[in-house]
């Protein structure tokens, strides 16, 4: 029974009364949002309960996605869409004089992740629910999500994101399912009388882990999965000796803040504590549930659960699961190990060496003494077992414990039956280079799962205008199966379709132009090419390359104010990790270059540069549908996959990009002429590494255009960057340009010219845009999650 308008209005008005003692006329926006959310929650709760009963009764295998980050964004419209009641609710509210979009907009983003990694987790949870795959999330309920970014005098300023101030309507606190997690103290082993060594503990720090469940509602089906997020609290029965403020502060810290960086390893104790906290709590809950429901010996657990280790942060799943099997269930080591390897699987997300987690042995030993013993034992037994088989060299290079450190990726690979990369190129690099020694030992464990995106959010919700045109052109089947967009190819030469697609994009550009006017005070020309680079700020992503090209265009205009040029609006959105000094300097440079360009009379509206504050999922939903061009210009081999590249493609933007990550697969399916590719290949990059013969300074000396652009950073041309300018200049010259920005510059300029030429031909551009949309099907995370389910977890779709 679908919700009717009448029913919704009744429920909504009743909620306003029971929750806030108010009515439609007097309710403020927060009250309206809370009441709407509450009605929706009641509506799906029934479906959730039924699906839980179904899962318990059928006892089918379930998978659990352990991730230290998720990045869901706003939930209201996504829930409405998936429940199939978006239009009903929009119309009902409209009847009452309320604008759904205005209400939806004030919901805070659930930003308990940094960027791509967390967003992927959320796309997977959406897709799993929408394809009926029993996959549940497990993470941390940070009280403060990713910082809010303000730009002050061109600099990034970080403000706390206290997203829970007005409560979170979607979550349910499950106090009855709280578990304890223990840290520190001493552990020793004693014979239990039967010859088995049992651990005994003293002086451990106790933390209560309380789960908060957020339902993941499937798209127009009956599946509702769960995202479990843990909050740390002080156990109620804690010995009075320990009940002091410091202890309470320490405990609260565990789930207080998200570490605001995802491409650098941070070796701080609190981070390690967070990792064990959500791993231990999550595994305890999974195993408790298994015990209560499945009623088979725990030795069969691998037939009923799968645990996924998303990047290395949850790699402690391996020793913690061993601890539970061996210490708590009394299972003999070898058997427990075989079960653990069957249950666990791992995804690698990066080859950047600065991001690879390794913890000092002393730290692990002090914080997690029993886990430390187990890790040593895993390492010792594996070494003894493999030495005669593969030899000392391979064993040593792949050891978990070496040089006084615990290597988390090694632990994750060794302790699981599957290791995957996130795009073809990345997975090949893992096998051939980065994890080659592991590949030699465990070739059958390696596989690729090219990333995807939850297309419903990135088209049906973010781009209603385009969605409408697609419906009118090819029907609505694409809303259920993104591969159906292929039908659009038949309209490649249909001028009417091309015009309507472009008109949809133009409306989105108007919407973004308005947003920019309001938030940045910059007037942009909606006819201009909207050229967008939105992603975390990192040197390897090469926002600087984009910047150098902007400066080139600027100097072209200064040299010849009459020059013919298709007007461009360059749009940036990027947060820098608060401790990443260089990235913050680049933000400052972008903002000062924006000031210089936007206020130069010679430039008029040929060029505008806009840095949009506080890039997050909600902002992405406004920016990406308005883009003509998506910048995916990382140095080849550095971006494991990228996912914003897929969002742009889905929304009809053309990619200018390097042969990196999933760009390669995008180029493959988009077809020649429908993208702009440039730059070094991964082989050429590795060739430079081998020979050590890259010389950035030579390029600076020999290329007059590059010379002039770089000098602008140090000669006062760009105002207000007295410290940041030289820093950028030096990185590209003295410090030899780690990411080959100068090496790729000429080819990038060439690709940008090709792009400009195509844009002048409106029809050809529209066709290329259409071809991107028509061929984006592969990048639905519905496809990705089915591959994980089939190949790695062996869990099945609900029929
Ligand atoms: C998709 C997305 C990302 C990932 O972008 P990449 O370009 O793949 O790095 C980061 N942040 C947000 C808010 C996103 O929506």
Return the average pLDDT rounded to an integer.
97
| Total domain modules | 3
Q: Approximately what portion of the residues adopt beta-strand conformation?
A: 5-15%
CATH architecture of the largest domain: 3-Layer(aba) Sandwich
Q: So what's the oligomer here?
A: single chain
Number of helices: 31
Overview of the structural elements:
The protein is of the alpha/beta class and 799 residues long. The protein has three domains: 1-58 and 75-108, no CATH class; 59-74 and 109-449, Rossmann fold, CATH 3.40.50; 455-784, Glycogen Phosphorylase B (Rossmann fold). It is 48% helix and 14% strand. The chain is built from 31 helices and 23 strands. Strands 1, 2, 5, 6, 9, 10, 11, 12, 16 and 17 form a ten-stranded mixed β-sheet that branches. Strands 20-19-18-21-22-23 form a six-stranded parallel β-sheet, sandwiched between helices. It has a three-stranded antiparallel β-sheet with strand order 13-15-14. The longest helix has 30 residues, at 29-58. The chain is globular, with a radius of gyration of 27 Å. Pyridoxal-5'-phosphate is lined by residues 115-116, 119, 535-536, 616-617, 620, 642-644, 647. This is Alpha-1,4 glucan phosphorylase. One of its GO terms (molecular function) is glycogen phosphorylase activity. Its cofactor is pyridoxal 5'-phosphate. It catalyses: [(1->4)-alpha-D-glucosyl](n) + phosphate = [(1->4)-alpha-D-glucosyl](n-1) + alpha-D-glucose 1-phosphate. The modification N6-(pyridoxal phosphate)lysine is found at residue 647.
């Amino acid at each position: 029974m679908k919700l009717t308008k009448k029913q919704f209005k009744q429920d909504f008005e009743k909620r306003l009364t029971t929750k806030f003692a108010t009515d439609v006329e007097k309710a403020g926006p927060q009250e309206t949002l809370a009441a709407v959310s509450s009605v929706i929650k009641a509506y799906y709760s029934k479906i959730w309960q039924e699906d839980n009963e179904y899962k318990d009764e059928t006892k089918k295998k379930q998978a659990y996605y352990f991730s230290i980050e998720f990045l869901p964004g706003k939930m209201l419209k996504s829930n409405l869409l998936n429940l199939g009641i978006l239009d009903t609710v929009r119309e009902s509210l409209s009847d009452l004089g309320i604008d759904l979009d205005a209400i939806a907009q004030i919901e805070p983003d659930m930003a308990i992740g940094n960027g791509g990694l967390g967003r992927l987790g959320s796309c997977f949870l959406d897709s799993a629910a929408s394809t009926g795959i029993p996959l549940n999330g497990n993470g941390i309920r940070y009280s403060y999500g990713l910082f809010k970014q303000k730009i002050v005098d061109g600099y990034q300023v970080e403000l706390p994101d206290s997203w829970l101030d007005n409560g979170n309507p979607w979550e349910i606190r499950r106090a009855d399912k709280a578990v304890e997690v223990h840290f520190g103290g001493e552990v020793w082993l004693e014979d239990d009388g039967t010859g088995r060594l049992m651990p005994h503990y003293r002086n451990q720090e106790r933390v209560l882990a309380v789960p908060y469940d957020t339902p993941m509602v499937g798209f127009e089906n009956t599946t509702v999965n769960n995202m479990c997020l843990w909050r740390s609290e002080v156990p109620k029965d804690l010995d009075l000796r320990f009940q002091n403020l410091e202890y309470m502060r320490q405990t609260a810290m565990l789930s207080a803040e998200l570490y605001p960086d995802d491409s650098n390893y941070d070796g701080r104790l609190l981070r390690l504590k967070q990792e064990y906290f959500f791993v231990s709590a999550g595994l305890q809950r999974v195993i408790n549930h298994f015990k209560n429901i499945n009623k088979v010996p725990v030795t069969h657990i691998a037939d009923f659960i799968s645990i996924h280790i998303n990047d290395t942060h949850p790699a402690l799943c391996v020793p913690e699961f061993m601890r539970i099997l061996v210490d708590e269930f009394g299972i003999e080591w070898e058997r427990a190990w075989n079960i653990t390897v069957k249950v666990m699987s791992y995804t690698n997300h990066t080859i950047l060496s600065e991001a690879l987690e390794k913890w000092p042995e002393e730290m692990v030993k002090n914080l997690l003494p029993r886990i430390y013993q187990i890790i040593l034992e895993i390492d010792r037994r594996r070494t003894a077992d493999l030495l005669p088989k593969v030899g000392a060299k391979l064993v040593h290079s792949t050891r978990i414990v070496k040089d006084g450190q615990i290597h988390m990726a090694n632990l994750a690979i060794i302790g699981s039956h599957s290791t995957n990369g996130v795009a073809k190129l990345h997975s090949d690099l893992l096998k051939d280079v980065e994890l080659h020694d592991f590949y030699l030992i465990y070739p059958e464990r390696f596989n690729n799962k090219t990333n995807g995106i939850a297309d419903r959010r990135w088209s049906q919700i973010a781009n209603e205008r385009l969605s409408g045109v697609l419906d009118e052109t090819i029907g609505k089947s694409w809303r259920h199966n993104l591969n159906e967009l292929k039908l659009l190819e038949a309209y490649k030469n249909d001028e009417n379709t091309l015009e309507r697609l472009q008109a949809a994009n133009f409306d989105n550009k108007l919407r973004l132009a308005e947003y920019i006017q309001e938030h940045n005070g910059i007037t942009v020309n909606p006819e201009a090419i909207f050229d967008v680079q939105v992603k975390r700020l990192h040197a390897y992503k090469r926002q600087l390359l984009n910047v150098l090209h902007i400066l080139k265009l600027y100097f072209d205009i200064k040299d010849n104010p009459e020059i013919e040029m298709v007007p461009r609006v360059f749009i940036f959105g990027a947060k820098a990790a608060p401790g990443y000094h260089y990235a913050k300097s680049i933000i400052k440079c972008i903002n000062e270059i924006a000031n210089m360009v936007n206020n130069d009379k010679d430039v008029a509206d040929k060029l505008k540069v806009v840095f949009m504050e506080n890039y997050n999922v909600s902002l992405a939903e406004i920016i990406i549908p308005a883009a003509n061009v998506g910048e995916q210009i990382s140095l080849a081999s550095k971006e494991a996959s990228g996912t914003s590249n897929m969002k742009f493609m889905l929304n009809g933007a053309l990619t200018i990009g390097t042969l990196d990550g999933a760009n390669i697969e995008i180029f493959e399916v988009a077809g020649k002429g429908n993208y702009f590719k440039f730059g070094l290949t991964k082989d050429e990059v590795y060739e430079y590494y081998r020979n050590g013969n890259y010389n950035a300074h030579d390029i600076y000396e020999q290329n007059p255009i590059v010379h002039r652009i770089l000098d602008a950073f140090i000669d006062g041309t760009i105002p207000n960057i007295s410290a940041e300018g030289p820093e950028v200049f030096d990185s590209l010259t003295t410090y030899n340009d780690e990411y080959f920005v100068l090496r790729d510059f000429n080819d990038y300029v060439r690709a940008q010219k090709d792009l400009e030429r195509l844009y002048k031909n409106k029809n050809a551009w529209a066709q290329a845009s259409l071809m991107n949309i028509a061929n984006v099907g592969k990048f639905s995370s519905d496809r990705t999650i089915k591959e994980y389910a089939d190949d790695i977890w062996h869990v099945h779709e609900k029929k």
